Amino acid sequence: MNEQPRTLYWIFLGFVGLVISVYVLFPVFWLFLASFKTQAELAQLPISFWPESPTLEAYKALFSPTHQKGQLLDWPQLIGNSFFIAISSTMIVLIFGTLAGYAFARLNFPGRDLILGGLLISRMFQGAALLLPTYRLMSMMGLQDSLIGLVLLYSAFGLPFATWIIASSLREIPRELEESAMIDGASRLQSMVLVVLPLATPALITAAMWHFVGAWSEFAFASILLESNENKTVTIGLASFVELFTLEFQYVGAAATIVALPIMLVFFFGQRYFTRGLLAGAVKG
């Protein structure tokens, strides 16, 4: 008797989710399709949703040093800077987050749980409130307009959450496995690297994905710290592109697609690890 109301409930939730998805994703999908249109096709009436004559001219223009769009914004340089910042800071966060997470999960010291909870709470204070003090601090340290400075900044911001994710996962791994390896002659470092970390792979991938996506798409701190064109990132380039070419949506769409592509690839290949990593340690068994 209760099956029909439950079925209707899930159908209703699915319909609501579908409506919200269409509402959110439709402008994104339209901008993606616009990148394959010409300016004339975008300006014609009535508006056509699908490209009538798909073209890659907008993408070619971004990477062409002879085209006006490619001359004003060096997109290969922007992409290279973003990859350098995102990958470098992700590696730093993963290495130090793993060591810190292992310490919180395996070592007993005063205030351990309080400090671990404080790391998570610290994420509440990121954002616009930290822009001015961060700018002054980076200027005093001589790291303004520096890719290395942005790598260190993103690493500092990403380390607390990565540590919390990894520590929560490591706590679910039985200590007996590690102790058995140490009885067989392995050191603590060897047992951590060869026994514990392979079992914590979903959490490690989750921490890496979370930080990479955040570092790749971050705009606020990059916009106030990076001034020279050779140091700017893709998010700054996209914002400048919108200001420069507001009416030429095919170029804006191409640039937005390039910015979003790495994020989509990361979640496409790591989705199953991402879900498992977030849930690790959430339920006590």
From TrEMBL:
<dbReference type="InterPro" id="IPR035906">
    <property type="entry name" value="MetI-like_sf"/>
</dbReference>
<feature type="transmembrane region" description="Helical">
    <location>
        <begin position="249"/>
        <end position="269"/>
    </location>
</feature>
<feature type="transmembrane region" description="Helical">
    <location>
        <begin position="114"/>
        <end position="135"/>
    </location>
</feature>
<dbReference type="InterPro" id="IPR050901">
    <property type="entry name" value="BP-dep_ABC_trans_perm"/>
</dbReference>
<keyword id="KW-1003">Cell membrane</keyword>
<feature type="domain" description="ABC transmembrane type-1">
    <location>
        <begin position="79"/>
        <end position="270"/>
    </location>
</feature>
<dbReference type="Pfam" id="PF00528">
    <property type="entry name" value="BPD_transp_1"/>
</dbReference>
<dbReference type="InterPro" id="IPR000515">
    <property type="entry name" value="MetI-like"/>
</dbReference>
<comment type="function">
    <text>Part of the ABC transporter complex MalEFGK involved in maltose/maltodextrin import. Probably responsible for the translocation of the substrate across the membrane.</text>
</comment>
<keyword id="KW-0812">Transmembrane</keyword>
<feature type="transmembrane region" description="Helical">
    <location>
        <begin position="147"/>
        <end position="170"/>
    </location>
</feature>
<comment type="similarity">
    <text>Belongs to the binding-protein-dependent transport system permease family. MalFG subfamily.</text>
</comment>
<dbReference type="GO" id="GO:0055085">
    <property type="term" value="P:transmembrane transport"/>
</dbReference>
<keyword id="KW-0472">Membrane</keyword>
<protein>
    <recommendedName>
        <fullName>Maltose/maltodextrin transport system permease protein MalG</fullName>
    </recommendedName>
</protein>
<keyword id="KW-0813">Transport</keyword>
<keyword id="KW-0762">Sugar transport</keyword>
<keyword id="KW-1133">Transmembrane helix</keyword>
<feature type="transmembrane region" description="Helical">
    <location>
        <begin position="83"/>
        <end position="105"/>
    </location>
</feature>
<dbReference type="GO" id="GO:0005886">
    <property type="term" value="C:plasma membrane"/>
</dbReference>
<feature type="transmembrane region" description="Helical">
    <location>
        <begin position="191"/>
        <end position="213"/>
    </location>
</feature>
<feature type="transmembrane region" description="Helical">
    <location>
        <begin position="7"/>
        <end position="33"/>
    </location>
</feature>
